Amino acid sequence: MNNNRVLSSLCYFSIFFAGFILPLIVFFVVNEPDVKRHAKRAFISHLLLLVPTIIGIIIFVGVIIFYGFEPNHFGSNSFTGDGLLMIAWLLFIVLEAVLSLVVFIWNIVQGIKVLKV
């Protein structure tokens, strides 16, 4: 098996163990154009997992800053805010989960395809 194919495949499979770090290192260390292309594609797909998570955390912190935790009608502390805001937050979480699953499966499929070629 060709070392370039294994390295290219590892860039995709690094979603299991090294995130976007391995594709970034491979991109700058290896001189083979095909491996660089796969490393770049893997890096971008790994960022697709990272960016929505960071945006979600920023939105969550912003909502807490603006709405805070206030007692509701029953006297217990719970997260309050507009109903639409809560629906939007839940929709964001569901979309992020679907995107994460799609990107995760895509990386596995691409890693296998590179090994089979």
| Beta-strand content | 5-15%
Inertia-based shape: elongated
Class from helix and strand fractions: mainly alpha
Strand count, sense and closure of the main sheet? 2 strands, antiparallel
Poorly predicted runs are 73-77
The helix-strand sequence is HHHEEH
Distance between the terminal alpha carbons, to the nearest Å? 10 Å
Mean pLDDT: 83
The number of distinct β-strands equals: 2
Assign a percent range to the helix content.
Answer: over 70%
Physical arrangement of strands within the biggest beta sheet:
1-2
Number of separate helices? 4
Q: Any idea what the radius of gyration is?
A: 20 Å
Describe, in short, the structure shown.
By secondary structure, this protein is mainly alpha-helical.
Features of this protein?
mainly alpha; 5% strand; two-stranded antiparallel ribbon; 117 residues
Note down, in words, how this protein is organized:
The protein has 117 residues and is mainly α. Helix content is 76%, strand content 5%. The chain contains four helices and two strands. It has helices at residues 3-13, 21-29, 33-67, 83-116; strands spanning 69-71, 77-79. It has a two-stranded antiparallel ribbon with strand order 1-2. A hairpin with a 5-residue loop joins strand 1 and strand 2 (77-79). Helix 1 (3-13) packs antiparallel against helix 4 (83-116), helix 2 (21-29) runs antiparallel to helix 3 and helix 3 (33-67) packs antiparallel against helix 4 (83-116). The model is unreliable at 73-77 (pLDDT under 50).
